[in-house]
Amino acid sequence: xxxxxxxxxxxxxxxxxxxxxxxxxxxxxxxxxxxxxxxxxxxxxxxxxxxxxxxxxxxxxxxxxxxxxxxxxxxxxxxxxxxxxxxxxxxxxxxxxxxxxxxxxxxxxxxxxxxxxxxxxxxxxxxxxxxxxxxxxxxxxxx
Length: 143
Prior knowledge:
Strand order of the largest sheet: 1-2
Largest sheet: 2 strands, antiparallel
Number of strands: 4
Distance between the termini: 21 Å
CATH superfamily: Ribonuclease H-like superfamily/Ribonuclease H
Number of helices: 5
CATH architecture: 2-Layer Sandwich
Structural class: alpha+beta
Number of domains: 1
CATH topology: Nucleotidyltransferase, domain 5
Shape: globular
């Protein structure tokens, strides 16, 4: 699960504070994986004190097993945000692409290149989930 902390100044310029991924062991019990996500998300909230969580809307997928696991992980993030009183905004994939590239049908490479440019980075954040989280963070209203 990718995450990013992006700060926006009064001029609307975005700065990447931190980004990364929460990774869990696929062989670990599902409930333990969700608990680890909750623990790490809470630690990120406590470290960075965000005023708003921007989260990507869940789209239905052909693989129902994967879709359910993603929905549960997303629910953990929303629960932590709610428990800490953080505002939440959901953005769709087209909204993310439009906000970052100006084109709602941009491909992954275009989005990643614009993330690098807009955040004035030397390289695209890695892994891909971290770069995606940067794009989602920049797609929120007021961000």
